Amino acid sequence: MLFWVIAAILTLGASLAVLLPLTGGMKGASPAGDHDLEVYRDQLSELDRDMARGLIQPGEAEEARAEIGRRILRLSAAMQPGAATPRSARGARWVASVAVLAVPLLSWGLYGMLGSPDLPSQPLAERLAKNPADSSVDELVARAEAHLAANPSDGKGWDVLAPIYLRLQRFPDAVTAYRNAISLDGDSAVRQSGLGEAIASAAGGIVSADAQKAFEAALKLDPANAKANFYLGVGLAQEGKKAEAVTAWQKMLGQLAPDSPWRSAVQQALAEAGAPAVAGAAPANGPDAQQVEAARQMSPQDRQAMIETMVAGLDDKLKQNPRDEEGWMRLIRSYVVLGKADQARAALGRAVAAFGADSEQARKFTAFAASLGVTATE
């Protein structure tokens, strides 16, 4: 009921604000007419002065005086008490008044039929208590923030909110959330690597000493943490240690699973560094920084020859030790990069045969090769 009372008062106020100027139109006519009459009298006086100074010919002055006189007569007639309001003006005011009254009446009628006037209001607290499936991202975040404001020692809540802040690019908030989660629930590789990413993102992508410390802490807990390994490589590149960064990324590429989302990021980083991703297919330890730098100084032909030699060496090693899963994937990828599709297909067949066609490794090799556009021979 309160809603309807407030709505009625607001509607009445808005309607009166528009109608009052329309109904008062006649009251404002007389002052406006007086003003016009004064203007015409000034024009007559100015006309006499111009004729006295010889600025206008007597004939022209007489015509101008006659025209001003006609305007004064028309204005005087309109200003007479009881003078009729022009029909067009009355009609315009009538139409405008009907329109002003019709708008709220139609609006209320439509709202009564199509709206939900009986639906209770829904304060923020009630909206945040809705089923999460029916809430927007902003509402979910607000729910989490309200909960953590009341329960700041809930480490799990901070742990859930931190990656959401990171995806929303609220990097300072993500840093705070990760630090709280680590402080309350302890270290983990995921939390430390997330903290490092949040610190680096808040600094515009710069892997600072604080970010590096977080990534190194993550690797102590999980040496295979892809995020930490990748960003530490970024940090090396930013410090001017490009060769070391390339070596780290190439080693990482050889260890990533075929479906890892970090694979494309590493390949792009290597491409931007001007290093071939296939260099990671070298023997298990990979080339050191001096070898990478030497390869960069070679001519394209010599570099290609060196890469093919390394790939051939890997192929020989796999003949001696065919149970090397990572080695087979590096070999398949190397042949693809070199544009040798037949050798890549053959390597896939040998890898599957080494572990058995029905083995989990065989399915892994097949999926990996398919992601590179290589299919097994029929």
From TrEMBL:
State the InterPro entries in the record.
Answer: C-type_cytochrome_biogenesis (IPR051263), Cyt_c_biogenesis_CcmI (IPR017560), TPR-like_helical_dom_sf (IPR011990), TPR_CcmH_CycH (IPR056413), TPR_rpt (IPR019734)
Pfam families linked: TPR_CcmH_CycH (PF23914)
Cross-referenced SUPFAM superfamilies, in alphabetical order?
TPR-like
Its keywords, alphabetically, are: Cytochrome c-type biogenesis, Repeat, TPR repeat
Q: Pinpoint the Cytochrome c-type biogenesis protein H TPR domain residues.
A: 134-261
- TPR repeat residue numbers: 155-188
Predominant subcellular localization, coarse grouping: other
Cell compartments where the protein resides: Cell envelope
Matching entries from NCBIfam families are given as: cytochro_ccmI
Q: Cross-referenced PANTHER family, in alphabetical order? A: CYTOCHROME C-TYPE BIOGENESIS PROTEIN CCMH, CYTOCHROME C-TYPE BIOGENESIS PROTEIN CYCH
**Which protein are we looking at?**
C-type cytochrome biogenesis protein CcmI
Q: What is the lineage of its organism?
A: Bacteria, Pseudomonadati, Pseudomonadota, Alphaproteobacteria, Hyphomicrobiales
